[in-house]
Amino acid sequence: MINIRNIEFAYNVAPVLQDVSCDIETGDFVALVGPNGSGKSTLIKCINGILKIQKGEILIDGLATKTYSPNAMARKVAYVPQSENRQISATVFDTVLMGRKPYIAWKPVENDLNITAEILDLLDIDHLSMKRTNELSGGQQQIVMIARALAQEPEILLLDEPTANLDIRHQLEVLEVLKSLAAKNMTIIIAIHDINMAARYANNIMMLKSGKVFSYGVNSAITAESIEQLYDIKAEIITIDGIPHIIPKISGKQRKYVCLRKLLPSE
Fold this sequence. Notes:
By secondary structure, this protein is an alpha/beta fold. The chain contains 8 helices and 14 strands. It folds into 2 domains: 2-230, P-loop containing nucleotide triphosphate hydrolases (Rossmann fold); 233-267, no CATH class.
């Protein structure tokens, strides 16, 4: 369980997070959404301890994150950044094996190799084991980065824009993997721009605006009013199979609703 208590963070003197509080239960799949600069990536890095909060506290399983050693934190929390140099010529197996670093004293032992192989099989990328990462598609590379994080055997998985720059098919593949992990009681927290994808896969949505929690709750909390206030756009919410879909309104002579499936002219 993660408890975030009135945290604040600023780069130099510019506040980025202000009085942020929430409780995240074990096995939750939480999507952080909001405009650019709202603090999504910063919050993820604060949870992971990459950034040190100036006020408040973050507790994981009842212990303040500042009391965890780097190794203990790496065994508890794994982080997949938005982008990194993925042109390094290493095999997929060796790349995923790097996630075992918190457990390796001198060199990998048989258990490390077995866990790496199990994760490759779990994510259905074992056939890529001997391929070089720079030979993979963007979607495959992203799955490999998730596999490397899972090699840490974390209880919490943090991801910053895991679907950025991926086509729709690979976005779905990545999010299906994350949903399956949450179903196995892993806590998933992602920063994501696509609010429709967030509503489809996450069970809780945290809306951030100007570094503050604008709204936090289940998908039903997504309303036309909240979208307008959050993004300064008009929108309609339609529900399909219990999942809200946000349809932005486009101003102009012929006002239209833009939908993933089709364009619907307004009446």
